[in-house]
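hey so i finally got around to running the thing on that chain from the lab meeting. sorry it took forever, my laptop kept dying and i had to restart like 3 times. anyway pasting the input first so we r on the same page abt which one it is
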Amino acid sequence: MKKIRFSILAIAAILFLGSCTKHKMWFPLDKMPEDWAEFQIHYMEPSASSATYNIDSLYINDELYASKNGSSSLQYYNGLPGRNNDGDMYAGRFFGVKAGNVNIKCMRKGVVVYDQNCNLTVGKQNVIIHDLNQPPIVIDNQFPYWNATPPATGENWNTDSVEKVMFINLLYESPGVPYPGKLQYQYKRLDAEDWSNLGEPVGFGEATTREIIILHKTVFNSSGYQRIDYRILDENGNIFQKWNGSKYVNYSDYWTAYIGRVYMHFFRGYRTTTPACNVSQWNSL
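ok and heres what got predicted. didnt touch it at all, straight out
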């Protein structure tokens, strides 16, 4: 019996060692050339809620970069690569192209609806189509996102972590007319008494820095999230007002923030008519 037992144990040990054999795994990756630019592209022209406004195919320097079965590749109020509705696994991806003067073409049902150039530099940036008849706006992506975190203090005790938000002003006063003033984006947790500024006031085509917002978990024993309310002040310090289809109302909004996330808030649309202005959120990370 001892011999049989030893034999069984020996066989098990051999099988265990065999299962631990190392196997190399190879992935088809190419290193980004040092003279290339990395970019995400967004379609933020004021548009009605209709799939007919989606971009079917995206060409960069006459090379096809994105087309999903010939339809709905670059959706209105969204971006590529890694559309928000494609899932979190795609967040943080970028296209690559040789830095310099870059041509962007967008097609809809086989027709070119956008053909403009912009200058892209080495590093990460966001390219924003805000008018099909105008060159895109290019902003610095401000990567890396978490090269520094706030020190532990009494203020952020028991918070676990933070999020980051960038605000981008793409507001049009009316069709073809950018909003002339600067906007101050503000936020407030439900457990906070006062509103806090998110960066400095920004004009049309400008973005704030990525600002840290301390979170207090809604559910303590969880991965961590909290509702954050937002509002906007105009250049005179008054609460920003927009047309809602029948009257002017104070702008207000809220988003559920998750610990460790990095977001971009694109403020797009018209102030005085429809489609009305609102924020579209983009998950940078």
